[in-house]
Write a structure and sequence with these properties.
- The protein is α/β, with parallel strands linked by helices.
- Among the domains are: 54-165; 285-489 and 524-615, no CATH class.
- Helices cover 14% and strands 30% of the residues.
- The chain is built from five helices and 31 strands.
- The chain has helices spanning 21-87, 258-261, 285-296, 520-523, 606-609, and strands at residues 109-111, 121-128, 141-149, 155-166, 172-176, 182-184, 195-197, 214-217, 235-237, 243-246, 272-273, 306-309, 315-318, 336-343, 349-356, 368-377, 381-390, 416-423, 429-432, 459-464, 469-474, 480-488, 526-531, 534-536, 552-553, 556-565, 576-587, 591-592, 595-596, 599-603, 617-630.
- It has a 21-stranded mixed sheet that branches. A five-stranded antiparallel sheet has the order 1-2-3-4-31.
- The radius of gyration is 37 Å and the shape is elongated.
- The protein starts with 20 loop residues before the first helix and ends with a strand.
- The relative contact order is 0.12.
- The model is unreliable at 204-211, 323-332, 358-364, 394-418 and 443-454 (pLDDT under 50).
Length: 634
Amino acid sequence: MPHQKTRLPSKTFFCPARRSRAQRGMAVFTVLGLMALMSVAALSVLSLVSTVIKSAQRRGDMTEAFNIADSGADLGRLWLSQNSLQNGPPNAAALDWSTSNNFYGTNGTITNPFNSSPGATLTVRIDPDTINTDSTQTQKRYLVEAQAQMPSGATQTVREYVQQISFGHYAVFVDQNPGNAYWANNHLNVFDGPVHSNNSNNGTPPQPTGAANNLLWNSAAGALPIFTYNGPDAFTVSGSSVTYWKDSVGSVAAPTNETDWKKIAVSGSTGIKTGTPMIGFPPVGNQRTLQHDAALGTASVPAASGVLVSPNGGIYVHSKVSSSPGSTSPSMNNDVQTMKLVSDVSGHQQIIVRQGSDYSHSTDSTQEFLVTTVTIIPGVGVTTSSGSYYGPNPPDTVGLTNLDTTKPHSPIQSGQLAASLTSGGTNGVVYCDGNIGLQNGQDANTASTGGGTAAKTGGLWGTVADHQALTIATDPAKNCNINDSIVYNTARQKYQAGDTLPPGYAVGDYKPEGVDTGSFKTQAGTLGIVSNNIEVTRYTDLAGTKELTNPEVDAAAFAYGTYDACDYANRPLGTMLNMGSYLVGTRGIFNQPPHGIPCSRLYDNRLGNAPPPYFPTTGNQYEVISWQRAGGLL
């Protein structure tokens, strides 16, 4: 058999075919397309990054611009404060931004304010409210605008509407401190509102260096604090320091821990601040232009002693010094001996004014007195009825009893039993150009035996009707006595047995307004007292036989001189409650243990934003009552 060759499997070899020219071009385009896409993506990323960077920069510029504008509004308010301290609240001319040197910067614009970015500008405008030209508006108001612009064009504008702070903002304000005076804790002195001491007799503005602010603190466990107001301005001092006496007068030792600090202030050490700027205390002359003109309106001072109701003002009480043909007394100064406030059966405010001889309780039956009753009827007007009285015990109200119309009455008004009506109402100001209450030397039966101011009698007392706003003021050189308690018809609630007591309070104390659920805030009236000196008498009667031991005064009481207690070193021990504001040029003394009436001053925060009519303002302190982030300058 012939040999056969084994046939091997055939192998197929594939040789790559040569690509066509079209295929080669497609590859190039694909590569180029991918590169283009990558470039676009890269550019997009770069653009996005740039946009993010610019956006971040703009946000940063907007933030910086806002901070500059916000600070600029504060700067404008500071300028208002500084200018008002020196020149009084500015008018429109003083705020004209186009007049150079009248405001910060050039025409109100500052370049690179507060060391900000180069090229940044701040424009500040201050415009007075149109109500500032109204003489009845004692709290001046202003619109402060501040606009900041960055080199990038980012702009921010802030607006603040500010108002002068009334002295009613403070529970206690003291311009000058006597060196020997002090406040003590453990319920001897209690202040539940902001307290400020200017300390102006111990240095020079704006920050005196004296240290006449003495606080006596009891270190025993559970001792009640002096300052029960839980705020950062519980006690502010325009001086370098406060002197702390521990447990006894003269034993200097400040608290060393927060537990002890809270025996002085509920808020601890943070509630006491020293070195704060002085607050402008108004000059005495302001009183005459405010209360005097407000009461008189366009009327003239009456020729005879008596009460004038101005048809476009308030109530003016004129005291004329003269001889009296109807009296054996050598002269009559016709000061207001007593002024009694009454809420009558209809809820109307009555003011009963008694004027007469120096010798107030003589047995001389021919002495002459003038008694006038004023009744304020909302929506109707003011009625007055007056009559002359002869004898040692004049009545509070005018009536037929003991009223003698047969005697000669010149120069004071003749007997008038019929009431006269002045339509339109009153602005609430009662101004006396004489004293309210008998002063030293006028009443020999009540002369002090020493210790404190000589005792006085007569004065202001009574009840303030609901919804009635009053300011009772005297001539700048005259004084006002407080002859008995002055209370609001609707009172604040008091803590009762079984109530949970916050730190610093005891059963019988008025509740802080924040927890008072009664109608006091919405219904009670308001009262301001403005005088040279205000003094709490030792006796409630003119004869000097009835001791006044526990008076309460619901009012914002402002004394250009001092406000204190007569005969504080000898009168029986009691307590004094001032529910409102205690505002004085020189701090007064109410007690000298074991005598006198140690005083607690409770805050009435209604008096800050709604003070009594024509009540004094701080002059150079402003508060923000509204704030706005705006789109631009008005």
